[in-house]
Amino acid sequence: MTTFNNRNLGFTIVELLVVIVVIGILASITIVSYSGVSKKAIATALQSDLINASDQLKVFQLNGGLYPTAQNCPIANSDQICLKPSGDNEITYTTTDRKSFVLTATNGLLRYRMTEEDIAPVVVSSTSAPATQGPLSPGTVTDDASVGSMAWVNPSNVVASDNVYASTAIGAGVGQESHYLKATNFGFSIPAGSTIDGILVEVERSWVDGSMNYGYITDTVTSGTPNGTGGSRMIKGGLTSSTNVSLGSEWTNPKSRALFGSATSLWGETWTPADINNSNFGFAMSAVGYNGPSGTDPTAQVDHIRITVNYTTP
């Protein structure tokens, strides 16, 4: 007689659970792998679309001297261009002066951007988002004699916070003003197309005199007493801005950090990422001194200047 062992006729609960777990793991690996491949394919297509569109725009500009006024499919007039993306991709084209452009290619949460200056597309956020760069220190600090009469000694000491100072001994009398201490070359790299929201400048400074009992140093204001013609101003394209944000605050001893502007202050200017990224972007400041009865010239000292820029990505 043949005898059957019932245990060999099926799987146990434990064996079935093991098989189910293995199948689940294999399925998740497959899904993740497919998702990664799909995302890479979309990213490659977006970049390819941008490069092709940029080439079309540059040919248009080469033939006509200017970039198109707008993107339109079908083309309505000779000043327009039709830029066709692949698949489900979307392309937007903007220009403000027909001498530059911003291209954006989007698919779902993936977005790339390219300007006339870029040699390759740049990945950006899928939605607008606040961002910050800095605080960054200047690469160049100089004495600028366009205001005041007292020169800054060792202005390059301002590039780092190390208690090594740039200084100026402001002469006798009321309202003697220093030259500008001019800090530039901060090395910002704000993404093209971003909106500048605000600029914060921080200055580490102090003052001293022979007795510490007479005289004082203040930020330059253009009215009141003491006053001058300089101030605390941003530098845009190498030129000082028209807005002086100084409040005439007295400098302290020991050293303290003074704040100018804020995360939402534009200093009375309109800014683009190119303005901020320019090596001539920066900050200029002057100081005014009052020499008291001691007859000792008060000395203004600046240890460090740094700038933080707040912006919103497209």
End-to-end span in angstroms? 83 Å
CATH architecture of the largest domain: Sandwich
β-strand percent reads 25-35%
Number of strands: 19
Helix content: 10-25%
Mind describing the biggest β-sheet?
Answer: 5 strands, antiparallel
> In the CATH hierarchy, what is the class of the largest domain?
Mainly Beta
Which runs of at least 5 residues are low in confidence (pLDDT < 50)? 30-36
Average pLDDT over all residues: 83
Q: Your description of this structure?
A:
This protein has two domains: 95 residues, no CATH class; 183 residues, Sandwich (Jelly Rolls), CATH 2.60.120. The longest helix is centred in the first third of the chain and has 52 residues. β5 and β6 form a beta hairpin. The strands form five sheets. Strands 7, 9, 12, 16 and 19 form a five-stranded antiparallel β-sheet that branches. Strands 8-11-17-14-15 form a five-stranded antiparallel β-sheet, with no helix packed on it. It has a four-stranded antiparallel β-sheet with strand order 3-4-5-6, with helices on one face. It starts with 12 loop residues before the first helix and ends with a strand. Helix content is 18%, strand content 33%. The chain is α+β, with helices and mostly antiparallel strands and 314 residues long. The protein has two helices and 19 strands.
